[in-house]
Every structure is written in structure tokens, then in C-alpha cells.
Amino acid sequence: MAEPILNQPHFQDADKAREHLEALRWPNGPVCPHCGSVRAPLKLEGKSYRPGLFKCNDCYGQFTVTVGTVFERSKIALNVWLQAVHLMCASKKGISAKQLERMLGVTYKTAWFMSHRIREAMTENMAGPLGGSGKIVEADETYWGSEGGSKAASKKDGQRKRGGALKDSNKVVALVERGGKVRAFHVPSVTGQNLKMVLESQIHPETHVMTDSSPRYNLLKREHGFKAYEQVNHSKAEYVRGIAHTNTVEGFFSVLKRGLIGTFHHVAPKHLQRYSDEFSFRYNTRTALGFSDADRAAIALKGIAGKRLTYRRIGGE
To answer: In what helix (H) or strand (E) does residue 90 lie, and over which residues does it extend?
Structure first.
């Protein structure tokens, strides 16, 4: 029987956690976060210095592996941070701050702040467009709660506009490349013009694009710059027509909304993009693409650099 993952040394000991993080972030040796120097720094050792402290030989600044990251100046032990990262990366539908509070032995406020810092680390750089020659990208939008963001959209929540969208709900647009990655955006409104703008800015022109037949896509249907564009008409019970369907993007939304409803319950609109990024990150590093939970956590830990996040900047709950 395999040893429980959280029993591994870097989850139990702060020094082992630091060594694990150094190996991930600095595979070729320490890099100064102040000036970027890769010249071997001086390792400061002895009772006067905290473990893992270096001094740059170029700018003379002192640093550890957490300087310039979302972990900087945190009073939480580094092995506890690594436990939190692993739990968030291994939980397909997310893990609530209340659950982290209970499992990590920290306060709710601390668990909530930690989870948002980790989501910041999960935010991926969108390098280049989705799709390309021979690729298929599906696009769709979904709606979450009201402006308070407390629950999933339903008929009882408010007055519906044409097309079924709730007047005061929060809108998320997602683009999914079949067999590839997803990009999700919390947008202020869903109109034909801004849907067209999102799709054309994020998808390669040589792509085969597929959506449903919502009236919001009429402008895209008339004027699009893609190699091919198809719609499926759900109002006429058409869900698959040959290779044309939006089942992949709807599957992503299914996991996202199950997490928002069943795990988090309440998500304020100002934080919805960060939650969307968290679910996108796990989708983009899913098992079907060859990633394990450990791989996913390692990628998240490599993404902590240059993303300082303060409680004041988040704005509390």
C-alpha cells in the first residue's frame, strides 16, 4: 500500500518543505529575486541567520526562496503552505476555506487568505491563442447567482432577459480546445459584440469554432474570421450533429458550478475570476493530459513568483 501523500517529509517538516520548494523553483541553483542574478550567492549560515537565507554577490540583497512570492512574509509554516497547495490541486471541485481551517489547524481568516494566494499562483499566463489548424474550440457562457454571488442562477432569482440569462447574474464565458486547454472569463455583460471580441482575441483564425445557437452569437455567425464556424440548436433538441457540439465546454461548466454550489456556496462577484482561474488550472493540468496531483501541485508552486497578494488588495470577504 502506498504511503499517504501528506505523510511525505516536505508536508511534515518546514526545512524539508523549503528544500522541496528550492528544488522546484531553482533547479539550476538560487536566483536572486532582487536583481535576477544567477551567480552563486553566499549562503548565510549560523545561529544569527534563519534557514535558507542567501546573500546576492551582485546586488548584496538577502533573500530566501519565498521572497517575491505569494508566500513572502507569511507566518504560516512552509510545510503547511505545501499541504494547502496540494489539497487545492487534488480537489477536483475545490476545497473550502472552512475545510482548510479544520485540516490545517489555522483560523478561518488565515485559511481564506491562503486559498486566495494559492489561486493567484494558479493563474496562468495566456501565451498565444487557443486552437489552430485542424483544432476545434467550443465556446459557451454560463450564469452564476445574482450580484451577491451567493447561489447558482435559477428562475426564482430575478427577472430573466431574452435568451434565459438572469438580469443580475454574473456571467462567465469559457473557451475549450478539444483535447486541450480552457480559458474562462468573468465578464460584465454578454452581448453579441463582446462575445465576438472575446472569441476573436483568444482563438486562432485557422480554428474550427463551435457554439450553441443563442441569439448572442448571431453577429459572430454573420461576421467571423475563423476557418469554420458551426452552431447546434439546443432549443430544437439538437445537441450533436456530426462533430458539432458544445459538450466539452458544458462539461467544464458542470464541474465549475458543482464546485461553486456544493463546495463554496457563496462567491462574491469580485472574486469570481480567481475561482474561475482555479478551476481552469485544474482542467488544464488534468489526468487526461498526463498530470498527477503531485505534478499539478509542482506547477502551482512554480507559479508563486512575482505574485505578491496582500489581504488589503483582495479586499477581505
So the answer is: helix 78-90
Residues paired with residue 197 on neighbouring β-strands, in sequence order? none
Rounded Cα distance, 94 and 88, in Å? 6
CA 83 from chain center: how many Å? 18
The model's pTM? 0.90
| Cα–Cα distance for residue pair 242/100, rounded to 1 Å | 45
> Which value, to the nearest 10 degrees, does the dihedral of the CA atoms of residues 213, 217, 223, 224 take?
-90
Which is nearest to 79 in space by CA: 5, 3, 18?
18
pLDDT at 171 over 60: yes
* Whether pLDDT at 178 is above 80: yes
Q: What is the pLDDT of residues 143-164, one digit of tens each?
A: 988 654 445 554 344 444 444 4
- Express each pLDDT in 254-301 by its tens digit: 999 999 999 999 899 999 999 999 999 999 999 999 999 999 999 999
Tell me the residue ranges of DSSP E strands in the chain: 42-43, 54-55, 62-63, 136-144, 170-177, 182-187, 208-212, 228-232
Q: What phi, psi does 165 have (nearest 5°)?
A: -80, 140
- Residue among 154, 153, 85, 87 at smallest CA distance from 118: 85
Cell readout for 114 is 491562503
Identify the CA nearest to 298 among candidates 20, 7, 13: 20
- pLDDT tens for 205-243 read 999 999 999 999 999 999 999 999 999 999 999 999 999
HSE at residue 101, side-chain half, CA atoms within 13 A, is 10
Give the gyration radius of the chain's Cα atoms. 22
Helix (H, G, I), strand (E, B) or coil at 271: helix
